[in-house]
Amino acid sequence: MEMESINPRTGFCQQTKTFHSLRPRTPFPPPHQPLSITHFVLSLLQSSTVPTTTTTTYLNIPSTGQSLTYSQAIDHIHSLSSSLKNHYSLNSKDVAFILCPPSLHVPVLYLSLMHLGVTISPANPLSSDSELTHQIQLCKPKIAFATSQTAHKLPSLPLGTILIDSPEFTSLLTQPKPQASQPRVEVSQSDVAAILYSSGTTGRVKGVGLTHRNLIALISGFHHNREEPDPNQPEQPPVSLFILPLFHVFGFFMSINAFSRGETLVLMERFDFVQMLKYVEKYRVTYMPVSPPLIVALVKSDLTEKYDLSSLRSLGCGGAPLGKEVADKFKEKFPHVEIAQGYGLTETGGGATRTIGPEETSQLASVGRLSENMEAKIVDPETGEGLGPGQRGELWLRGPTSNGVSAGYVGDEKATAESLLPDGWLKTGDLCYFDSDGFLYIVDRLKELIKYKAFQVPPAELEKLLQSNHEIADAAVIPYPDEEAGQIPMAYVVRKPGSNITEAEIMDSIAKQVAPYKKIRRVAFISAIPKSPAGKILRRDLVNHALSGASSKL
């Protein structure tokens, strides 16, 4: 295709109705070259400009006082892969199920298994028995890795379960280095590296297959388009604080990305707001990946004044839309901290769009521009027609690999066929638009739009307004069945301590800010909004709660 037909401001091509990334194209290794994500990441680390790689700390776990340097981590990866190969004869394409809370061993375990071409499948240690049974049926693992606390949840597998907090595991990690004569395992880039579980906020959890190639492409993009350090700022070693679970796509990807760049990671085993502030001060944290509810908490909490947070440079925000009002208040309170928003799905391995640098991060309502080598379409959900800048429709994405952005849903051909088209396009199910500068805006989930009479009401828009009210700690909006209108917007509200705000005051305040059809017509007060580990509102739980309530007249 001729580049002239792509608009340099929006990235939109009128002929194909496709938006193209405005970022410089990223070079990748040739697709036929055998290469695992682990081998690729180790080669980036070795060529990286971080001079102290061997002595630099890779992982810190403050709650246990343990830490791991890069040279130890690299030794562990090599020892563990060769021990697992020799003792358990694990082969390329075998699946390993991982049910572990965050620990020093988890990232090393991920990289060792993927080095052997073994597909890893990390799951939430707090999953219910029925969720785990479903996940194990989908991924069909040969072996599992767990801790003495989580192992009882697992069925018996062909090669059993290894406890990562046992002396046996420690000996696998620390066995003498393998002889150089041992041939390296050849891993094809098109093999599935990881099966990650999508959050299942709208239906049953699905297992998303991501290939080594998908992950190599994403890491390359981050590597080649990193932000240059600000010459006016003192050079600080990059330290990330992780409050995200490592089994979720955001935490999984960012832990591998940090490894490729020689950065230090501080892992929190359990989220605690005050502890988080203490760690930022103690470890001079420069970066934290967060979800919007945490930004709301940082804005509203007075505790932030008690700690020295001056080392913080940026927050990577994803998982759900961030309200502009909240972002503005954050900038007022923390002028030296950038909020780099991004948008991605488990299916895209994380970042499909993101903001880079001060000019882009000032576009507070947007989730950024298309990442390197990504393409997008905005499609009218009724007619299937491609739309241009400024027009709302369903976002479709296509990624920098031969098979689209992911390898589809494991064990679910129907879901794969519905979402992943033969030519590589992924239908995201999100209602979005691009502006005249190529910035993407998320309106809401198509499935979550409330159908009031003939109108569509996006819950996220009402939630942002509710969250900007100083008497409200948190809020969620759901559809509530109504005979006359079909559905009406209903709000679940968590009051701030000491607030007595009433249903009438809430409905009245929103009514003044929105079109009549978007008004909230019902309010319930609740102690906490149910959310997934990534900070997404579990609307199904709230819908079930509303419908089972004695107050519901159905």
TrEMBL record:
It comes from the Eukaryota. InterPro entries: AMP-bd_C, AMP-bd_C_sf, AMP-binding_CS, AMP-dep_synth/lig_dom, ANL_N_sf. GO terms for molecular function: CoA-ligase activity. Residues 63-409 form the AMP-dependent synthetase/ligase domain. Residues 461-536 form the AMP-binding enzyme C-terminal domain. Gene3D superfamilies: 3.30.300.30, N-terminal domain of ligase-like. Transmembrane segments: none annotated. The keyword Ligase applies. It holds the Pfam family AMP-binding. Keywords: Ligase. Belongs to the ATP-dependent AMP-binding enzyme family. This is 4-coumarate--CoA ligase.
